[in-house]
Amino acid sequence: MSVRLRSALACAAVFFMISAPVVAGLYLVVRSSLEYRGSVLTPDFIRVTRDHHLYFAPRYSDGYELARGFGMHVRSAYQDDVLGDLRTFGWIAVTAGTAAAFGLGWQASGLVLRPLRKVTETARRVAQSHDLTERIGHRGPRDEVGELAETCDTMLERLARAFDGQRRFVANASHELRTPLTINRTLVDVAVRRQDATEDVKRLGESLLLVNARHERLIDGLLALAEGERAVLDRRPFDLSDVAEHVLDQAAREAAERKVTVHRLLDPAPTAGEAVLVERLVQNLVENAIRHNHHDGEVWVTTRRRAERVELLVANTGLQVPPYEIETIFEPFRRLHGDRLRSERGSGLGLSIVRVIADAHGGTVTATPREEGGLTITVELPAEPA
Fold it and tell me: Is the pTM of this model over 0.85?
């Protein structure tokens, strides 16, 4: 139950616990006052009604006993009527008062919790948009809600500084490392192409070029990871099917070299965001599907729209993937089947980049193992209205 509902129920319970004993006590008092007392119905003379005429019957006469019985019957009927009405209207009043207390408690708790709802909405918006520059900015008395809002603003400010510092460090380090790697690649390439280079030097140079290429891909992945972790503020509409088609055209050569057949089913899927980042997302998924495959394998790429979401599905054949390893493949530098030495298959950042880019666009990424081997990865992004 929500806090508002619990507060309303508490108000109703308090009213019921107070009013119910009051009504019960009132019922007992009235019942006691209406009980039979012999001194009241045993005077020396009793007035009796016969044929709408009044007369007095003396004590110990036949008329006296008749009048006394008649009076006791009237008093008993009157007592039953009064107590019945008191029970009925008393419990109706208790029930109506309890319902009114519930309604008033609901309204009062809504007014009290309104600032807290603002804090919650702002925190949820920040969590969904990854925009740590937004603040709650509570205006009001310095009460419990004000202190909570101030604490949340302080936490958001510290998180923003931490994330910005981390992204700047990764970006600066990647840029600084790219320059010496480029120089190394140039020097090794020149040494390998020299006419007097021996076969051992050429083989060593080719190995160094492979290692250098892996390091360059690693740096590019770190840059993409740092870029994807920031909030996407400039959202522009584009069609996910166009991006997927462009990526598949670029990957057609690699797929042909590896003898992998690519199947396309690209339906219109309008969305919004940064198309360059989404292109990197699709590129990573398609490259993984082609490279983590076997010869004469297959890849299926599908785009479609589902209500308020658009979907990108990339499925491939390949080795069996245990279900318990599904979540770990989205962690940085994690590879399936202990494949950490084959540099041509990437740096281990591909799916991590996919996840952070999808999160930055308000989307989700899920992976499902195929019974025949391989994976089916589904990316969902918010749809753009037509």
Answer: no
